[in-house]
Amino acid sequence: MKRRHFMASLLGTLAAGRAFGGFAQEGAAFVLPADHPLQPAWQAWKSLCLQEDGRIVDAPQSGASHSEGQGYGLRLAVAFGDEEAFRRIFEWSESHLALREDGLLSWRYLPEAGDPVPDRNNASDGDLFYGWALIQGAVAWNEPLFADRARMIGTALARSCLADHPDGSGRRYLLPAAYGFTSDRAITLNLSYCMPRAMRELGAFAEAPALVTAAQDGLDLMNGIAGSGLLPDWLQLTPEGRTSAPGLSDQSGYEALRIPLYLCWSGMTDTPAQQRFREMHRQAAAWDPGTATVFDPETGRIRESSDEVGYRALVALNDCVLSRTAGSAMPDFDAAQVYFPATLHLMALVAQAEFFPKCLPV
User: What is the widest separation between alpha-carbon atoms in the chain?
Assistant: First the structure.
């Protein structure tokens, strides 16, 4: 959708009188005060990842930008009360990624390409975080424009990016994108795209109850797998059950390590998925001085580890949440990281501040 057409449509919706006031019924957005000790970490993250025009850059990925990064950045901006950065990120995203007729974001921007957005498909996790952030921004700054954009995204996700389990059970899951992940007998999932809190809040706000149902079904799937093994990055569901997804990683790696962060940020404290993550990392600590980032799904052996402190922060937060003791081994934010671990690190610190004040780093 061309930006001018989209904005005209959205402003027309507002002019027609769609209610915003009832939107704040979920309560105030979580915003850290200007003098909070984490504010310098936000400034450091912006210097690392955020350009003046509002584009969030993944430097190791050839300087590309993704809807995931724009959604993450938007959510962090409202957590830190940074309306100026929030609006910059929003305006760049709307101008460069909001190209689809349904209002979802195209998943990747390649700055050096002749056509910087050659693939108009979306990435559901990027849209999910983007829509969730817009809810928070609408409440924080009383901005109906953000509220209506969030509704559009929530409605589009429910309409285009949910699929039923092929076994006929009626269970429903969030697909990785609007197209490319379904067949006659199977659906392909990335478990880390299911962020329960974001799906529930966006589904409730957009009056899209299927998103809320899919949040619970996705959580049940994760916990069922975690009861007997590691959570894979990708999987396929068929009428007969769960299998590996052809051509995609079945390791428990950089995708799956986001899951415990999302569960903690959803206020969860003792799910089987969180327990499994703690168990595997406690075992890994005896084998490798770094933080394990990729595990073999069959043997549980470490295939890859990292010295980036952002990954260590995920392990420390989850361990503190499950241990129910005060203090944690969460490292202070370090701007000498690349985009992905730096962003996960900052989100872990925000989740800690919002839900688990006892888990202050010690």
Answer: 62
